[in-house]
Write a structure and sequence with these properties.
There is one protein chain. This protein has ten helices and 14 strands. It is of the alpha+beta class. It has one domain. The strands form two sheets. Strands 3, 4, 5, 6, 7, 8, 9, 10, 11, 12, 13 and 14 form a twelve-stranded mixed beta sheet that branches. The chain has a two-stranded antiparallel ribbon with strand order 1-2. Helix 7 runs antiparallel to helix 8. It starts with 25 loop residues before the first strand and ends with a helix. The relative contact order is 0.17.
Length: 413
């Protein structure tokens, strides 16, 4: 079927709209991978295929480094988070709690995708909840994050609905509340617990251990990054783009060979494994909990102090999604490892070129990528389609390293 939709010139978006409709087998927020060609089916099921693999964490050589993470009481946890989570659970019907609240060690922690799930997820789908229950679920997320972090989450959700309205397709899937929310463990001020929010362009894993809040893995994305129509004024991932460009532009051209992996993101200029529409340049996405990633790029500590500060400003953008005490503690941890922190870049750094960057520290992995269209029609990566990933390498994704320390200290036989 040909799309014959039209808009008045004043309302025409600056994004290329698809001409064909309904080409992907997506119905009611589920992707039927058996109806896809082999390559996209394989790429889009990575999270499901690997979530029960023994957990190692992202490492440089397959062996996690010890001693990088330590339990302390330096930053108090968000005071309302546990009480807000318990209020949410208390408001659910018993049959809803049975699938919406899972044990702390449930394998579903590691079962997520930034695309559309190819399995029937556990957890409560927000748009299937009564409005009052959904507000209580959102209140848990708000109480766990910084104001800026929560605003980013809500903008991402609204832009998902904006996408559905913009292309006038997949209207049962590209919605504001097509996200599954799961509470793990018993919300408590003493014992570990956490939650997961999972769906298109939005995957958050928030774990509370003592005074620590671990927000990793974390995926935020948007296509497009600015809203149209009734979502005009909603934007996402601006700082992740602009602060990175500002930092990149400070590095002298004679050091490009230390960190620029390629000058273009166009498919013809990249190896095939980096030119696909599903993962793009990302290496740390769904199903990559045990990624082996050798360091590459410029060593941050080798930069002048003002450029090091520029890199740390970019790190703050991502850590700023955490409550302030946890963000400051994590930033101090990153500072301790600047002599082992690397930065790489692909693409241009003018006002239009698409680009990718990665910050790789022993205690933090950040990726940013511009993508070609998945639901829009741009064949090459563009600034208005962004994916970002944050992880804690060497075994602390999902708070695993800190959890092991907690259980060793407080639950030994």
């Amino acid at each position: 079927m040909t799309n014959t939709r039209s808009r008045p010139a004043a309302e025409s978006p600056s994004f290329p709209l698809p001409t064909a409709r309904g080409e992907l087998p997506i119905v009611d927020s589920l992707l039927f991978d058996d109806l896809l060609p082999e390559v996209p089916a394989f790429e889009l099921t990575a999270g499901f295929r690997h979530h029960r693999d023994p957990f190692v964490g992202i490492t440089e050589d397959g062996i996690p480094r010890s001693g990088l993470y330590s339990l302390d009481n330096a930053g108090g946890r968000p005071p309302r988070a546990a009480a807000t989570a318990q209020a949410y659970l208390d408001g659910l019907a018993p049959h809803q709690r049975a699938v919406g609240a899972l044990p702390m060690d449930a394998p579903e922690w590691r079962l997520w995708t930034n695309a559309i799930p190819t399995w029937l997820p556990k957890g409560m789908r927000l748009e299937r909840l009564e409005a009052s229950d959904r507000e209580r679920a959102l209140a848990v997320i708000e109480a766990s994050l910084s104001p800026a972090g929560y605003a980013s989450v809500r903008a991402t959700m609204k832009l998902n609905a904006n996408l559905g309205e913009l292309i006038d397709d997949y209207r049962d899937t590209l919605t504001e509340f097509a996200y599954w929310f799961t509470v793990f463990g018993r919300p408590s001020s003493d014992e570990p617990w956490g939650w997961q929010l999972m769906g298109h362009h939005l995957d958050l894993h928030c774990v509370f251990i003592g005074s620590h809040v671990v927000l990793a893995p974390m995926f935020l994305g948007a296509e497009p990054t600015s809203g149209t129509g009734r979502f005009h004024g909603v934007t996402a991932l601006d700082d992740e783009t602009e602060v990175a460009l500002a930092f990149r532009r400070t590095i002298a051209a004679d050091r490009d060979d230390e960190f620029v992996l390629s000058a273009s993101l166009r498919a013809a200029d990249l190896p095939p494994e980096l030119a696909g529409p599903w993962n793009g340049r990302h290496v740390g996405g769904a199903g990559q909990d045990n990624l082996v990633l050798a360091p590459e790029g410029i060593v941050v500590a080798s930069l002048p102090s003002d450029q090091q500060d520029g890199l740390l400003d970019l790190v703050r953008v991502y850590l700023g999604r955490l409550p302030a005490p946890q963000a400051e503690r994590k930033l101090a941890q990153v500072r301790e490892h600047l002599d082992e922190t690397r930065f790489v870049w692909r693409g241009g750094h003018d006002d239009e070129c698409a680009f990718y960057y990665r910050i790789h520290s022993p205690v933090l992995l950040v990726e940013y990528d511009n993508h070609p269209g998945v639901f829009l029609a741009n064949p090459e990566p563009a600034r208005f389609h962004v994916h970002t990933i944050v992880r804690e390498p060497n075994g602390n994704d999902y708070g695993r390293d800190l959890l092991a320390q907690h259980y060793h200290a407080h639950h030994r036989p």
